[in-house]
Please model this.
Amino acid sequence: MDIQFNKINPNYGVISITLHEPDYKSCVDKQLKHYAQHVRLKGFRLGAAPTDLIKKMYGSSILAEELDKVAGAALKEYITQASIPIFIEPLCTTPAKTMDLQNQHTFTFFYEVGLMEERSIVLGPDISVTEFEIDNVGPKLVDEFLTGLQLVHGQSVQLETSALDAILHGTLIDSTEAVGLDIRISIIHIPEHLRAPFIGLRVGDQVMVTEEMLERHFSTLLSISSGQLATFKRCPSAWPAIFTVDNILRVTPAPIEPELFDRVLGKGVATSESEFREAIRKIILFDKRTEARHAFYAQLREALCKHNVVNLPEDYLKRWLFINNPEATLKKVEDYYHAHEESLKWEILLGSIVRQNGLAVTSSDVVDETKRAYLDYAHNNGLQIDTSDAAIHAGTLSFLQGNEGSKYYSKLHNQLSRDKAIYFIKEQITVVTETVTAEAFDARR
Model:
């Protein structure tokens, strides 16, 4: 096996892997035997088909599959051992049609890779970011949240065309059609002088939406989290957006009574309106603290990207998006790239900080965090489990080795890596903490 790495520029390179017959022959032979034992062919007992016949019928497909596996495993091992700082899955650019699987014995695979530039990260006390701590929620936000809940759980009637009292359900897409939200629009909450385009709509119709039209729509009324709304508004291409109508309803708000309390919180959690409002206040407080954390991350990203230039292999990334999304048009790839360009730069910046400062997340870190999350889940849901270290460890490993566990591992690994990087950054820069109410926090946004 021959492996070469050609670093074309600081953020892009190509890895070539050449496989010779000894590199893949044993894997192919093993698969041919497996097929011979398990494939049922007419005229032969199960497992009695001659290997030569199996090879003639399935040899090329088995060879192609095993070559791909061997090359992929070699690539992964090489990237790890050589510590190549990739930030996205490599892109194989070897067309299958160029291989002569019948007569060829040596095969070369080419993989394009996006690289994190090896440059020092600028940090220091001159970089200042404000971190908000939310200490209270006032009655106005509680009232707004309650209004949204009454609409969600109210009695609804389907309408063919929209009227002033209609609720429109549908998808809001930014001006580049790259970022979208499933939301709910209450026509009566749109400023009066802007309502006309929303009257008389049918399912499937589209209407242009400006930020001013939704200024009276709090997040619960829109049926999204406050964090989702803030993220959409921060998108440079957010406005004007296009709203596509999926459903039109007239809703009679649910009365504020025990049945509503039980449907929202669970049976018996709140038995009076005051208890219900207090539970809502706590929900909002949790959501606002989450939103404040996301706002801090957004400020942090803006501040660090201002002081640190991150170059991207633009042509390579667009090609990567196009190949991995075969149904996408070139325009959609272009729009998607520009809509997510800053987020990608931020992720690369975090990855560089992790790499340069020895902050890599280990398998033990993931296992320990999974154990903690499992114990918290069991406690919060009243589950009776064996809490001994051996039982929890065995159960965690069993979960992480499964299909769902593998996805969870990857997601958690990325989150822990991100958390380590952000904690490190906060130690190096100036973080100003400001305690405010939820209303004051909203007013500053």
Q: What stands out?
A: The chain has a mean pLDDT of 86.
